[in-house]
């Protein structure tokens, strides 16, 4: 169990840049309780073994920062990232359960071995304007009851992710590659996997009623079970 060396309450931090400078851009074993990082500049910072209890990252600049073994869901208190900039940000072995991630910029976002249960991802700008690709990578992430809505993620890679009972609406996972793992999608509004490679992913539980698999790569079993053999490329 992590022994937190420093604890910060709501009014402890008046200038987050002072804290970053104090620790040379690397912050380890700190606990933040209801701290507002709103409008803070947190670029190129490394957070390791930290916990964030009910913290607000709205409008913060977290570009090219890394979070290692950080917990954003403590005592059922969630963190929110609204209009946060997460360009090139990395989350590794983090608990992002319950996090509210809305209207953020997330080009080249990387998630590895993260728990996402109950998190909400809404209106995310994953794709870089010039390339129309996200270059986002999700690896060995798990979670249930995740909400995805109102975004497009192009040419991302999902490796061995176990995403069960995902409620997705108005989402486009186009030209993405899914390697291993489980993808259980339920939707009451359109969702697209245009041109995506899903051959190595378990789609048990996914229903095709609102899902567009046009041009997607599926194996024969997947295509037959979903009843979409004419829309997809069966390999």
UniProtKB/TrEMBL annotation:
Protein name per UniProt: Pentapeptide repeat-containing protein
One Pfam family recorded for the sequence: Pentapeptide_3
InterPro entries: 5peptide_repeat, PA_immunity-related
Top-level taxon of the source organism: Bacteria
Organism: Vibrio eleionomae
